[in-house]
Amino acid sequence: MQTQALSARALNKRPRISLLVSLAIACGGAWASAADDGGFRVESEVFANGGEEPVTRSLTLFRDGVAWDFLEPPAVKRGETAAGEIVLHDPARERVVLIDPVRNLKTQIDAIRLERLSVSLAAWARKSDDRLVRWAGGPDFGEGMTEADDRIELVGPRVRYAIEFAAPPTEETAGIYRRFADTAILLKALVRPGGLPPFPRLAINRRVAAAGGIPTVVSLEIDSRAAMVTGRSDSLRCVHKFHPRLLAGDLSRLEEAESRVAVATPVELAEFVAVPPQADE
User: Fold this and answer.
1) How big is the CA angle at 272 (ends 268 and 273), to the nearest 5 degrees?
2) Are 145 and 199 a contacting pair, CB within 8 Å?
3) What are residue 177's DSSP bridge partners?
4) Which residues sit opposite 160 in a β-bridge?
5) Do residues 47 and 237 touch, judged by C-beta distance below 8 A?
6) Greatest CA span in the chain, whole angstroms?
7) What angle do CA 110, 229, 9 make, to 5 degrees?
8) Cβ–Cβ contacts within 10 Å for residue 261, how many?
9) d(CA 197, CA 131)
10) Exposed/middle/buried for 89, CB within 10 Å: 0-12, 13-18, 19+?
11) What is the SS3 assignment for 91?
12) CA-angle at 5, arms to 60 and 67, nearest 5°
């Protein structure tokens, strides 16, 4: 758990944009084939504790086998733009790249690092004194999971997940989205440690993909005692809107993101998540 401890020390010093896109949900009309070179886009919003305004937003663009996550900084209003972090999911090269456009920095995380984190985190969680954390370490969640045609619920000690899903146009789309969602939640566990272990969500992702679906609504409810332990809100609800084609502005945004990756200075994860020194006022 050395990597996780290192990340925790660094992240305690810097407010981070939430990677809650891993709670993926989708609602919308017609969809494009994942194999279509035109790609598709997903607009995401996360709501906390029943609030009407999202606590975070993101835009994910899928094209040519990769996914680009554009994470809005906190307190950005709808329709406004700001330079938030960018996350490149590149499964063909077995890597994830985090880019900070403001500081012109990037850091690369190889897939093997996330796999090792998964193994060590599971071993740690299963030995925890906290019943919720121990349950979330898995590996079996079958007893607490119930399924309907378009809904899955998973209930554990002091926690409940509820997932609604819809059928995508192709099985390939569901597989691509599941791989993205799995990587996103493992990435969150690495760069923002301290929440629930990711294994309940990974199990849900498997069941949704096996049913040939993509999540449309994902809700997480934790009782107040567990919320204090994990540092999470009592309830989170994530909504994604899927669109069947990339827009003209999306293509320009992808070109800009590619150029930022090319010129950003590579650094280690600990430096990437560290708070930059503040000038004396």
Assistant:
1) 125
2) no
3) none
4) 155, 221
5) yes
6) 59
7) 45
8) 17
9) 12
10) buried
11) helix
12) 15
Q: How far apart are CA 151 and CA 166, in angstroms?
A: 9
Span 2-31, pLDDT tens digits: 333 333 333 333 433 333 333 433 333 333
φ, ψ of residue 127 in degrees (nearest 5):
-105, 5
Q: How far apart are CA 92 and CA 214, in angstroms?
A: 22
The H-or-E segment that residue 272 falls in is: helix 269-273
pTM for the predicted model, two decimal places: 0.78
Region for residue 64 given its phi and psi (left: phi exceeds 0; alpha: psi -120 to 50; beta: otherwise): left
Buried b (16+ CB within 10 A) or exposed e, 64-80: eebbbbbbbeeeeeeee
Q: Tell me: the pLDDT tens digits for 39-57?
A: 888 888 999 988 888 898 9
Q: Cα–Cα distance between 159 and 131 in angstroms, integer?
A: 11
Helix (H) or strand (E) holding 181: helix 171-191
Neighbours of 224 (CB within 10 A): 8
What share of the chain in percent tops pLDDT 90? 48
DSSP for residue 192:
S
3-state DSSP call for residue 152? strand
Task: Give the span between the Cα atoms of 23 and 56, in whole angstroms.
Answer: 12
In 10 A of CB 207, how many CB atoms?
17
Cβ(182)–Cβ(202) under 8 Å?
A: yes
- Determine contact, residues 92/65, Cβ cutoff 8 Å: yes
Closest CA to 271 of 79, 95, 9, 56: 9
Residue in the structure block whose two tokens are 């567990």 = 226
